[in-house]
Amino acid sequence: MNNLQTTLQAAKTGAALYDSSDWGKILVGDRDRLRFLHNQSTADFEKRQAGEGCDTVFVTSTARTIDLVTGLVLDDEVLLIVSPNRREYLFNWLDKYIFFADRVTLKDVTDSLASFTLMGAESRSILERWGCRNLIHSPHDSHQLYHIDGIEVRIAIGTELGLPGYRLIVVGGASPEENRSKSAALHQSLTNLGAVKLDEDAWEYLRIAQGRPKPDAELTEDYNPLEVGLWQTISFTKGCYIGQETIARLNTYKGVKQYLWGVKLSGVVAVGTAITVDGDKVGVLTSCQEIGEEILGLGYVRSKAGGVGLKVMLGDIEGEIINIPFVRHEYPV
Description:
Elements: H1 3-13, E1 16-19, E2 24-29, H2 33-40, E3 53-59, E4 65-73, E5 77-82, H3 87-96, E6 105-108, E7 115-119, H4 123-129, H5 133-136, E8 143-148, E9 151-157, E10 165-170, H6 176-192, E11 196-197, H7 200-210, H8 225-228, H9 244-252, E12 258-265, E13 274-277, E14 280-291, E15 294-302, E16 311-314, E17 317-322
């Protein structure tokens, strides 16, 4: 087994460590913070208490996707963890919707909060060795502050990929130098306990294998959250929010015409290539990554064309539609 295969295996059955410090981190503060986020995204923030969290989707007024975001509710603020390429865009987008009477503040804290994702079946044992047993049995996205080897770290249950594991956010120091020192010390502590570093190529492969959608690929103004398969991020019972009318109508009238699927490929295919069945276009490829001898992609396929097991063509490359664990393609019961 080569180093890459060892790393990928660690992400599932061992413990793998990914440096997610470049993921955007936005603090939403002041009295109206929960109401504001409740009205701007698909999740029910008003039911959340400090120490809880949730995934949510920010969408346009016509319910087109902007980003899939994790919100961690703190005592007096909400920490939004956003995709690296949506950091500035989403900050400005949120700022646009703060009106005169709103008691809401925004602060981009990306550069002062280093972060890591610890994933794999053995990640739990690392937390147990750190004495974090009270968090381990809490619900998904629960989070607490801990002191790990003298470093203040917020640990949240869950990973960006839906694999078992945790997000670790290093509480910022008084200077950039102190931040870097804390980050390096925590990284060393994790590797000393057996965590294997996960590089960007391996991360991208796992992202596609799991089906985590990415802005400018699967999350664009061409698609809505139901087509993506992000049902778990949507509250169908809360009040109005941006894009709510369109999402409610699609749900009520079962109007989803295409779904995001995985595609197992016989060769490398350019993103944007049409997915066809018997010469008819049924979808489009949105991501593709080769690792060793395996090539996986993500793409949208018309619901009438079929799902898992469907044989497709992408130019002269053969493909087969496969399941991706991160999303779901069913209406809530």
